[in-house]
Design brief:
single chain, 126 residues, alpha+beta, 2,3-Dihydroxybiphenyl 1,2-Dioxygenase, domain 1, 2 helices, globular
Length: 126
């Protein structure tokens, strides 16, 4: 039914100016559209919709994940130079850490937050 229909990730934010600066300037996404309802960004072959909401940052789980392949370490280093700090989840069973990178066998991942506290994830494989 929905398997061949496009989907879009949505992120609630409190401050659209700060969010636009973060998603464009820090993460390097390209804004495709902006209107009073929010901003739509292109991310690879998918889209991300960032919109204002009083409930911004209340999700305590990962909101968006990007599969970045072998570029994980380079992207992590680039984000650090832009002031991004990475979350440390030391209570995950079977997971070790190599600096900021969580290692689960062949899977390597990092988590970080946007200005409203939404949890974002980069992973070397999806």
């Amino acid at each position: 039914m929905l398997g061949d229909k496009p989907a879009i990730a949505t992120i609630a934010v409190k401050d659209m100016i700060a969010a636009n600066k973060f998603y464009e300037g820090t993460l390097g996404l390209t804004k495709e559209k902006e209107d009073p309802a929010g901003s739509t960004y292109k991310s690879g072959s998918t889209k991300l919709f960032v919109y204002p909401s009083e409930f911004a940052g209340t999700n305590k789980a990962t909101a968006v994940a990007w599969g970045v392949g072998d570029d994980l370490d380079k992207i992590v280093a680039d984000l650090k130079t832009k002031g991004v700090t990475f979350e440390q989840y030391d209570n995950l069973p079977g997971v070790t850490r190599d600096g900021d990178v969580h290692v689960m066998g062949e899977l390597r991942a990092v988590w970080f937050k946007d200005p409203d506290g939404n949890i974002l994830n980069l992973v070397n494989q999806m």
